[in-house]
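Fresh eyes needed here. Have a critical look at this protein's tokenised backbone.
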Amino acid sequence: MSRSDPTGALLLGTGAGVWIFFKGFRVFREFKIVADTPCMPVRSIPMGLVQVRGQALSDQLIPSPVTHTPCCFYQVKIEHYETGEHGGWKHYRTDMDGAKFYLQDQTGKVLVDSYSAEYDLPESPPRVVDGAHIAPLMGTGASDQELLQYVEKAGVNRLAATMEHWLDHKGPLDDPKREQGRQTLLEMVRMLPQVTRGGGRIPPELIDRIAGSHPLDDPEKEQKRQMFLQHIRETGGLSLPQSSAMASGRYRLREALILPGQEYHVTGTCVENPGARDAHDRNMIVRGQNEKTFLISWKPEQEVQQGLRKRALGMVFGGAALTVFCLALLLGHLHMY
């Protein structure tokens, strides 16, 4: 197939149109769920699908990577500029991090585990950095050098955050040996970003923690574990990216934040909070096992519904139009009508 042959592009366009069409129906279903679920005071929410609105509140604020804004949670979309015939800005990675935070209204507060949510948040103006032309820092926020270092290690941070969330969601376990192993792994992944910044050195206290855990039942696996511990002690750590390493190329970063004191509209599944501090901290909103709708938006309730409806209709009709258009061109190109 020559470069001038449009068959591949038309087939790709037809497939993309079909995908967008059916994705639009899933968004429309989400719109119906949000529209049909009444917004309730925090004190009155039942177990199951709920919709609440309140101010974000957290005692574990973290600085955002781009603007260094103290926040409950951040999401950074990273694009990489690619050269060539089909070059341009291409999605590179989406990084996110943050602790669970509370949503508080006049009747009480409820914990929100926002990691698996869909976010409808305002984005900061795009910040462009170029490894070939590092500009001096102007104003506040991260410097170009810091952002290139952040892009380099964003994959490690995202992996650590994903593993931490999964391990936290799995426990506590009934089996003491398995629970000890879970706690050890949880401590390891929480230290992973620090290990990365430290040049790949695992702290001695963590090595002692691993060595002091229960031996594995399988002798072969236990032997491999002991060999691994011996290797760490002899080498002093693992080979991980250094904090001085910077990504090469040109990148564009957009940051979206959940800020303390700001109001947010949350639609998700209310479950029992396994780490409840008191009688007023028994509930937590998460992404449900059966109902996957979990949306956090900064907009008022009516705007949330209107945005979902508009997006769904645009995807349904746009996907159908793209499919018909590409399919018609493809049939014409192949002289099939």
Observations:
- The CA atoms of residues 171 and 179 lie 7 Å apart.
- Helices lie at 7-36, 144-170, 176-197, 204-211, 219-235, 301-333.
- The first strand starts at residue 48 and ends at 57.
- The radius of gyration is 24 Å.
